[in-house]
Write a structure and sequence with these properties.
The chain is an alpha/beta fold. The protein is built from ten helices and ten strands.
């Protein structure tokens, strides 16, 4: 569905990604894991078009999307939930979700459906965004991304700073979203989450992919985990 093919990305003159190749197939969950500053968020920002590819290609559903702007990728079916959540603090929950539906495509994800996934959304539909807890804001951000009915959902640190109970809720939601046919690219610091939900893993270090494989292969390679993830 979405591929980064040997891309280089720069911040000014500083190179952040070096020949990075990542792909997610239809109905698949893949995760990008690594230490802070390794290039995980940069890879997601390149995938949604917020950062240009200096070299290499971005492909979406078989088409060369290297030059596509973020709004075109969004309308084609890529949704991005940033680490900072970026909800609209002065809008209600329902209004935040309506903003996510501006580029709405036909599909399973309606207001009623996202309220089934996260029931508090319907119960507190009129609550302004800045009155929500961190966990509620994260769930709202994911639900807002779903309102466009994406084919691919990019999640940047969706469980960062959340209580264990909320982490479990978000983890189960990721699995439920994937069962609806949405491909997911997950960036996480909490290694337990990608190990529990992802089919395949990419380890990134200093802007380079240093390992790729299935989750079972990574779990069997303790030395690789300790070397690049420090756990």
């Amino acid at each position: 569905m979405l591929t980064l093919d040997s891309i280089d990305v720069f911040y000014g003159k500083a190179q952040a990604l070096h020949g990075v190749s990542i792909a997610v197939e239809r109905d698949e969950i893949v995760s990008i894991i690594g230490r802070n500053g390794a290039g995980k968020t940069t890879a997601l920002r390149a995938a949604i078009g917020l950062l240009p590819c200096a070299r290499g290609r971005r492909l979406f559903n078989g088409a060369d999307a290297t030059a596509w702007a973020p709004h075109r990728l969004s309308r084609a079916g890529v949704a991005y939930v940033p680490e900072t959540r970026r909800i609209f603090a002065n809008l209600s929950l329902r209004e935040n979700l309506a903003m996510g539906a501006v580029a709405h495509a036909p599909g399973a994800w309606t207001y009623e459906r996202v309220c089934e996934l996260f029931p508090f959304l319907g119960e507190r539909a009129g609550t302004p965004g800045d009155a929500l807890s961190g966990g509620e804001q994260q769930m709202l951000a994911i639900a807002r991304g779903l309102m466009s009915n994406p084919k691919v959902l990019l999640l940047d640190e969706p469980t960062e700073g959340l209580a264990p109970r909320i982490v479990e809720t978000v983890q189960q939601a990721i699995l439920a979203i994937n069962r609806q046919g949405v491909a997911i690219v997950l960036v996480e610091q909490n290694l337990r989450v990608p190990l529990a939900v992802a089919h395949r893993q990419y380890i990134i270090d200093n802007g380079r992919i240093v390992w790729r494989g299935t989750t079972s292969e990574l779990m069997a390679d303790r030395g690789m985990v300790e070397r690049y993830l420090g756990v």
